[in-house]
Amino acid sequence: MSTKYRFTLNGQPAEVAGPPMARLLDVLRRDLGLTGSKEGCGEGECGACTVLLNHEAVCSCLVPLFQVEGASITTIEGISAGDEVSELQRVFATEGGAQCGACTPGMIVTIRALLDRHPTPTRAQVREYVSGTLCRCTGYERIFRAIEVLTDQRLAEGVASPSAKGVSGE
Do residues 54 and 40 lie in contact, with contact meaning Cβ atoms separated by under 8 Å? Predict the structure, then answer.
């Protein structure tokens, strides 16, 4: 049985028809052509398929299609500003936070959720947020460094509260 679902996808109205229990990951990749979210484990343990669902980082391999009705979904494709990479993506690349690319989309989406809540996160907050996204290439230190650089830039630009502790603080 196929049902139509309406939602907001990367800031734009979207509609897709499918079985209620279809995985959001499959619908995004196969039906909507958004292949940035990756299939890793298919069990919600690796985080490669992370998207924002109503501003919360979730593994799209665990979300049945019926749960997206009326929701807001942001994929890695929605993190960038058109053809321009986002500030987060840029610093991730320049600081070596992305290597093989398998975890990168999920990691960036997860960190976007963190930065939306904590513009200048502590290292403990970063560790907590990225704990569900496995990375076997960087050892996480380069990822932490990328967020630290971004936090320092935000503080210098006055984007975040200067009284907040950055990533280097515990």
Answer: no
Tokens 């603080």 correspond to: 169
Q: What global pTM score does this model have?
A: 0.87
Tallying the residues shown for the chain, one arrives at 170
Domain count, the chain: 2
CATH number at residue 131: 1.10.150.120
Which one-letter amino acid corresponds to residue 71? A
DSSP structural state of residue 20: T
81-128: pLDDT as tens digits: 778 888 999 998 999 888 787 888 999 999 999 999 999 898 899 999
Site of tokens 């210098």? 156
Let me know: does 103 contact 47? Beta carbons within 8 Å: yes
